[in-house]
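Sample pair:
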Amino acid sequence: MRARYIYLACPWSPVGGGMFKVADYLIQCQSRQPHAHAAQLRPLDTRGAGSALFSLWVLLTAIARIVRGRLEGGLAGVHVNMAERMSLFRKGVLIAACRALGVPVVLHLHAQMHRYYETLPAALQAPTRWVYSLAKAVVVIGPTGRRFVTEVLHVPAERVSMIINGVPEPIEPRDPHRPGNRRHVLFVGNLSKRKGVLELLQALARPEIDTSLLKVTIVGGGDVIGYRAKARELGVDGFVHFEGWCDQDEVDRLFARSDMLVLPSYDEVLPLAILEALARRVAVVTTAVGEIPSLLTDGVDAVFIQPGDPASISAGIQKVLQEPGLMQTLARNGRALYERRFCLSTFFSNVASVHFRNFGIAGCLMDLTAQDSGEDRMTLVS
């Protein structure tokens, strides 16, 4: 019997951001043992890490791999991870090619697409709706995405599934040792205006915030040089450290030594950094944007701040640092929320259910409680 497989299509490098991490997590936790009645999840790069011209070549290569998989009979379907802007164009071409080849597609939306869609002229809105109509199923991350896909793009509700992202259990044990009661604050994300990095630095420079026992670590690619210069200009470079881009293991180590994650973004869907903080019992201070307020509760498992407002960011950090027991409460409630909604096994099983309904086959989940033994368990796909 020919081995069956499912392609997970996205930019297969850190360029893909959270979209790439989610797809990579699914592949990392699938069974290493071949199963006759399960599919293997395989990466399909749709962009590459080079120029726009090079990305076109990568896209054409991806389509060629789909053609080969269709002709050889092993390809069960393609799970297309889509954002906005050029991602919409590239994945639209890919989905149209799949439709022409008779390959079923699950389209997974990873962006607050409604804002971008509103900026498109009518001549481009119609092709966007057409691309979504080609998918056998559409996966969204939260209720905002579901409303947009059903009410604006007119995808039938029965073809839309809401699946909340999941992240792995931490590998690095928590490090509770804080010399002199020093507190470690972490930011994880691309260093850009959209992520609110400038406002975070401005908040840390405000006179009302006590920085004497504060260490702030900023992790992510982007304009590291520019923001480091801004930190010097604001006089916060003595306790703010820029790590640049870090791999999964290094981020895990930084979370293990952190007390608080601060994410003052202007626009998000559901950042994986928040889910990783919850899993690691790290208090979360974040803006209530995208799907965040539909899944987290202010004062219970997070503290909400206003986007673009350094005073609000400063007040949120101070609140967690100064209110007795709040940091511990957020950490405890956040971990409980992770276990209920954001663990990787639940995410994998939910994705597998969509695959089974639309591809007739799904991946097999590694037993995440017994990885060293090599045991696997079949996902629930009923």
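Residues 18 and 272 are 6 Å apart (CA to CA).
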